[in-house]
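Replying to the earlier thread about multi-chain prediction with a worked example.

Input:
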Amino acid sequence: MASGFVNWFKFSSPATFYPVARTIGRSAAVIAVILIAIGLYMSFFVAPTDYKQGEGYRIIFVHVPASWMSMFIYVVMAIWAALGLIFNTRLSAMMAQSLAPTGAIFAFLSLWTGSFWGKPMWGTWWVWDARITSELLLFFLYLGYMALRSAFDDPRRGDRASAILLLVGVVNVPIIYYSVQWWNTLHQGATIKLGEESTMDDTMLIAMLIMTLGFWAYSIAVAMMRLRNVILERERSAGWVRQMAGEGL
Amino acid sequence: MAEFFHMGGYALYVWGSFGATALLMIAEPLLLRSRSRQIRQRIMRLARLEQAAQQ
Amino acid sequence: MLESLYWVIRRDLTIALRRRSDIFTTLIFFMIVVSLFPLGIGPEPDTLRLIAPGVVWVGALLASMLALEQLFSADHRDGTLEQMLLTPQPLAPLVIGKVVAHWLVSGLPLVLISPLLGLQYDLPWEGLRALIISLLLGTPTLSLIGAIGAALTLGLRSGGVLLALLVLPLYVPVLIFGAGAVEATLSGLGGDAHLRMLAAILVASLVLAPLAIAAALRVATD
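Result:
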């Protein structure tokens, strides 16, 4: 093997990754707090008032990052699922499992904030807009994954079954999105645009990006916390957990 | 200050969004931490029981 | 390969025809669901014509989902499924055979009865034709996607409800293009584009779904 080769499989054992997850999680948490603090400051005090939507537009500083993360996390989960199926590594499936609730929360927040944005802007809490509808279906996909995952008593079988579901889902997401878009254009003609992207101020864009990075770091931090819980629960009878328990965990 | 919280008449919508987001994003790590504590305690109790059984 | 496909279809059809009541249950469920909507919405023919494509399609969706649970469960219980997975035959034709047989007894009857339901909703002839063609192209896809869900939830306690949760979001494109085809035909735009999309989705799922079904069955019989 070439020099500098890292044996990544070494980290695929839950026992070796358990302490690593703590380090990653802590650093990500610090980064998340800093970025979100900067992002919040920018979204309330630096970004100017929108000339059309007034102060109400500030909702996009949480809405857009939450929507992006909800989609991104689903894809990442599918990648972990694929890795888990190919290499038969337990940790990959645990990664996917640890990300799911966070992704579902972001999908929910995207719907919630979208609805709070739609009420003053469109005059209604809910519009069957293509993006909102797709986000709702994504939320259902998350719930389905989590329900299937928790229905299995045997964790290894649950890992594989839910990995298959994730791969089926990720193939379907573009088709669902496309079909919903098609359905929407046929039924509403010209759809209402979410925020006029072209006229967005630079500081607005930067604030949104910083918030997105903050949410991203937050997702890593929370996923690592959940991963550690999952590992402990599933490996509770393994020797290394016993040994750690003897030392006071 | 009051003007800031008023959000140009959009207070309900802006704070409804940011509030819900903050609530969930604070609650999630807190719940995870308490869960982690629960799991550790259970494992420790099991380990102690086993030790007692051996002696 | 074709031979094993043929035998699986024949075997499953024989079994299904011996238990004919299952077929009728699905069919009657479909008819009842579709008949409930006018009672809930009101009998104005104009409204009914407007909602007919969606109502019939949602009804077909739910009915075909209802039948899914039986797709693998009997074979799983008596060990036939395990034997099938152990045969040296490639798994894809066996899986496709089971799905085809299932569609013949649960999907095809829905297609055949649909014009009658369309008449209840005062659909004109072109609308009925579009309804039949769209169901003919769409229900096999429902069976294929549904089979993935059925295989994934095989042997689980909460199988039925869970199956609905997994499968219904994945049914959305078929519902949109299926109901859309009928609607577009009724409005005079022509539903050909929708029907072509349905056909494309059917071909794609015919290629991809058996892989997922086979993988899920292997997990279930482990």
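Chain B is about 90% helix and 0% strand.

Feel free to reuse this layout for your own posts.
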